[in-house]
Amino acid sequence: MNDLSGRKIFPKATQHPSTIAAQGLGWVDEANHALTPGVHVSSTFLRDTQNRLPEGRLYARADSPAYDQPEAVLAALEGGEDAMVFASGMAAATCAFQSLTPPDHVVAPKIMYWALRHWLVTFCRPWGLEIDLVDMTDLDAVKRAVRPGKTKLVWAETPANPLWDVTDIAGVAEIAHAAGARFIVDSTAATPVLTRPFEHGADVVMHSATKYLNGHSDVIAGALVTRTRDEFWERAQALRSQGGGILGSFESWLLTRGMRTLYPRVKTQVANAQKFAEHCTRHPAVLKVLYPGLPDFAGHKVAAKQMQGGFGGMMSVRVKGGAEAALATAANLHIFKRATSLGGVESLVEHRATLEGPDSPVPPDLLRLSIGIEDASDLIGDFEQALAHAHARVTA
Ligand SMILES: *Cc1c(COP(=O)(O)O)cnc(C)c1O
Predict the structure, then answer these.
(1) In percent, how much of the chain has pLDDT > 70?
(2) For the chain, N or C: smaller number of CB within 10 Å?
(3) Taking the complete model, does pTM exceed 0.70, yes or no?
(4) Peptide bond before 103: cis, by omega within 30 degrees of 0?
């Protein structure tokens, strides 16, 4: 599928997504037939003697060839018409909201990526967007919140940080569309491996590519993918190139490389997470495991309907003994690393309440776990010995 002439012509992919990802759509460098693409660093492009821009590229803030491959791969993996990469997941998400016009009305979840909810309340509301935060798992609540003709955007995240609430994508899409609103899904935790939101009615998909898409904890990046190129998309494109929240060349290259192993990484993470969650639910020092792959989890049925091949690599574990026991457990982990972020090859643990502060819905006994690609029995063993240490300390 090497497109030697025009960029941004995304051929309809006939291969399986895992093949597309592994080969980066099979693109090769036309100039030297290099199988691995180069790092495009030029900020500017040569005009011909007729003062034309032969490739239509003027300046890298709008037209960098560094984005062509990661954007084409992402559009193909999600099954969309176009994609844009950004300097971060937050740059992608904020671009979507800033493409609206105050006083447009927005419906967003109460439980969502903390920094985005915080930004909506501290910057977007004062800017003039009218924002209602609702329980996105409750379709009746979403129905009550939308205002036909006035609501321009419904935002969902599924499974949602850090309680892993599952939103019924098809259900919310129907409500959003009936009200004349666009529906955007933050699919960071699900990845295109497990959920393809366009198949369930979403209009735009957002990713923090920092997480699973890149997968190696060495890039900050974000993406928006659209089902169709429409007015909203054109506005978002203009906003990215004018606002300048663009991804660096090397980061674009790393992201393309990272996505080549997306499928085997996520498959391993999902298998590890399912084993880990099932093991932990039976542990006497554990109060509750929040994981969509557990049959008694509130969102399990909806997750089973819209996720394929597993329930993700993210979970949260509530330990008995409150914040003290949770912090002591985290302190005694060796294989799990105490660090924020998620979706990398290495397993991470984080006490979210420390970060999110008093207005957070996160219980103080909760540890968020990002399950990596290590051996599952090592991860289980590490967590068990940490729980034992913490339990001994708290009951001493
Ligand atoms: C990390 C994350 C973001 C923000 O992405 P950055 O790349 O950190 O800016 C948004 N949504 C979810 C679900 C995330 O996990």
Answers:
(1) 96
(2) C
(3) yes
(4) yes
